[in-house]
Amino acid sequence: MKKTVLAFSRITPPMAERLRQDFNVIVPDPKNGDIAAQFDEALPEAHGLIGAGRKLGEAQLKGAAKLEVVSSVSVGYDNYDVAYLSERGIALTNTPDVLTESTADLGFSLIMSSARRVAELDAWTKAGNWKATVAPSHFGSDVHGKTLGIVGAGNIGAAIARRGKLGFNMPVLYSGNSRKPALEQELGARFVSLETLLAEADFVCLVVPLSAQTKHLIGAEQLKQMKRSAFLINISRGPVVDEAALVEALQNGTIRGAGLDVYEKEPLSESPLFSLSNAVTLPHVGSATAETREAMANRAIDNLRAALLGERPQDLVNPQVWK
After folding, report:
1. Omega into 14 within 30° of 0, i.e. cis?
2. pLDDT for residue 11
3. Which of 47, 163, 256, 284 is catalytic?
4. Quick one: pLDDT at residue 9?
5. Which parts form a coiled-coil structure per UniProt (predicted)?
6. pTM of the prediction?
7. Residue 284 is a catalytic residue
8. Which of 106, 135, 180, 226 has its CA 20 to 30 A from that of 292?
């Protein structure tokens, strides 16, 4: 008898058909009513879940008696109660590596657009304000040759560092839990404390996972340690930054600007950030290219198939559950 897979997001019809070769597949459809209700109704029969963007812990999964694996179409897994899943012996998988370069592209685009005021001046131009040569009040900041600070030099952080050093001749500083000798040798990157990085970097790029240790890693005190001419770039998770403190810092000129792809509350429909010309705000699109999302979904399918067919998945978040 085939096992049942419940796909709740980021799975296209062709991908669902691929899963149907081995499993019964349920895909909630808005045409059939409330998506959440369909999910809850199907959950007790599900051996595997696949998707992203849904909080899953004891409250949501206590009725999922048959559940064996949650395959997340994402790198981050802060939406999932890993301890609870592990306690129940439920495997959790994610999709590292496949989105590294796309997310690094997005991170560097935020550096460029913040420094050169791309979004602000695009809106200014479209509003019909370009009637003469731009004045110094519209000047941006150079990127080439400036100091790039990477907070969390994992795969994505290293990829951004390469773009900065090799493409824009930017000296690279990085901070984190451990040194990266290969990155130092390749790019001449310097391993420094967070305090030193904040004080010296012209662009502070946050690429750390969300945890109890990194929540509000950047708050009012840290923002004051940055140069007044510096930019904060966040492509990690929203709660890594104290958003209220950031708004105040942008309003008061404590830092020059910010490029943001993530926020403390998502989706974000209203925010003081939206009225600030020195904040570039994107809707959490780090991995949102057609090519990368397809690669992520296929990687998640591979992980799900392996787990449900008795093979060890490639990307286990909680390997202790696999016997």
Report:
1. no
2. 84
3. 284
4. 85
5. none
6. 0.91
7. yes
8. 180
DSSP 214-239: TTT-B-HHHHHHS-TT-EEEE-S-GG
Tokens representing residue 55 in the block? 């909080």
Residue tagged 């989706």 (tokens): 267
Write the CA distances from 291 to 32, 98, 99, 162, 288, integer angstroms. 29, 10, 9, 22, 8
Among the options 17, 221, 266, 311, which is catalytic?
266
pLDDT at 181: 97
The DSSP code for 151 is E
Q: Name the catalytic one among 47, 163, 237, 293.
A: 237
Rounded alpha-carbon distances, angstroms, from residue 13 to 10, 29, 53, 256, 317: 10, 11, 19, 45, 27
What does the block give as tokens for 52? 């992203």
d(CA 52, CA 61): 15
Please give the pLDDT value at position 10: 78
The 3-state DSSP class for residue 34 equals coil
The whole-angstrom separation of Cα 189 and Cα 173 is 6
Those residues with Cβ within 8 angstroms of residue 49's Cβ, 6 or more apart along the chain or in another chain:
5, 6, 7, 8, 56, 64, 67, 69, 70, 71
For the chain, give the longest Cα–Cα distance: 73
Quick one: 264 exposed, middle or buried, by C-beta within 10 A (0-12, 13-18, 19+)? middle
Beta-strand ranges (E) seen in 2-145 are 4-7, 24-26, 48-51, 69-72, 91-93
* pLDDT at res. 138: 95
Q: Which tokens is 225 given?
A: 């340690």
